[in-house]
Specification:
The chain has 8 helices and no strands. It has helices at residues 14-80, 89-107, 111-141, 147-154, 158-175, 179-196, 201-205, 208-213. The protein is elongated, with a radius of gyration of 33 Å.
C-alpha cells in the first residue's frame, strides 16, 4: 500500500525559484552537512555527560572505599591492640586474618574488600605519619638530644630514630642548611600550611595510636 501524500503549493519569487533550481544540489549538501554536524554534536554532548557521570560515580565509590578503609582500620586496631608484643609474626598474621573476617561480617562486606581497603587507607596515612614523626624527631634533635634520648622521650624505636636522624641530616645537607635552619624552615612551612588550609579527615585521624599502628602493626 502506497503511503498517503500531501500536496503542497508554494509561491516563490522567480529569482528565488531560479536560484533553487540552479543551486539546489549545493543547498541539499549544506543541509546534509549541517544535519551530520548536529548529530555529532549531540553525540559528543551525550558522551561528555556519560563520562562526567562515570567520573562522579567513580569518585563516589573511591570516597566510600576510603571511608570503609578508615572505619575497618580503626576496628582492626582495636581488636589487635591487646595482642602481646612478644607474639610471633605468624600468629599475629593469623590473628589479623581472623579479625578481618569478623570485621567484614560486622560491616556486611567481603573480607578481601576490607583487607584491601585497610591497606589503601594505610598507604595514604603512612607518608603523613612519617612526616609528622620526622618533624618530632627534628624538634628533639635541635635540642641536642642523642638518638637514645630521642627514642626514650618520643617512644619511637631506636632503629627508627637513627634512620630518621640520618635522613634529616641528609635533607639539611641537600638544602645547604644546618639542622637548626632546617627545623626553622619546616616550622615556618607548617605554620603557613595550617594558616591557609583546613586539615582534612586523614590529618584529624593521625594521632599517637596511628603512629604506633604505622610501625609495622595494623
Amino acid at each position: 500500500m502506497s503511503r498517503p501524500t500531501v500536496p503542497i503549493k508554494i509561491d516563490l519569487p522567480i529569482e528565488l525559484a531560479e536560484g533553487l533550481v540552479e543551486h539546489g544540489d549545493l543547498l541539499l549538501r549544506a543541509i546534509e552537512k549541517a544535519i551530520l554536524e548536529t548529530r555529532r554534536s549531540i553525540k559528543s554532548e551525550r558522551f561528555e555527560e556519560k563520562r562526567a557521570e562515570r567520573k562522579r560515580k567513580r569518585e563516589a565509590r573511591d570516597a566510600e572505599f576510603l571511608i570503609d578503609g578508615r572505619k575497618a582500620h580503626r576496628l582492626l586496631r582495636q581488636r589487635l591492640k591487646s595482642l602481646p608484643q612478644s607474639l610471633k609474626n605468624k600468629h599475629r598474621q593469623d590473628a589479623r586474618k581472623d579479625a578481618i573476617v569478623k570485621i567484614a561480617d560486622a560491616l556486611g562486606l567481603l573480607p578481601l574488600y576490607v583487607d584491601i581497603a585497610i591497606r589503601r587507607h594505610r598507604d595514604r596515612l603512612l607518608p603523613k605519619v612519617r612526616k609528622r614523626r620526622k618533624f618530632s624527631v627534628l624538634r628533639y634533635l635541635v635540642q641536642g638530644l642523642s638518638n637514645s634520648e630521642i627514642a626514650s622521650r618520643s617512644g619511637f624505636p631506636l632503629a627508627m630514630v637513627i634512620r630518621d636522624v640520618a635522613e634529616l641530616r641528609d635533607d639539611a645537607r641537600g638544602l645547604g642548611l644546618s639542622v637548626f635552619e632546617l627545623e626553622r624552615k619546616r616550622t615556618e612551612e607548617k605554620a603557613r600550611f595550617l594558616s591557609t588550609q583546613k586539615q582534612n579527615d586523614d590529618d584529624n585521624l593521625i594521632k599517637w595510636a596511628d603512629i604506633k599502628a604505622a610501625q609495622g602493626r595494623p
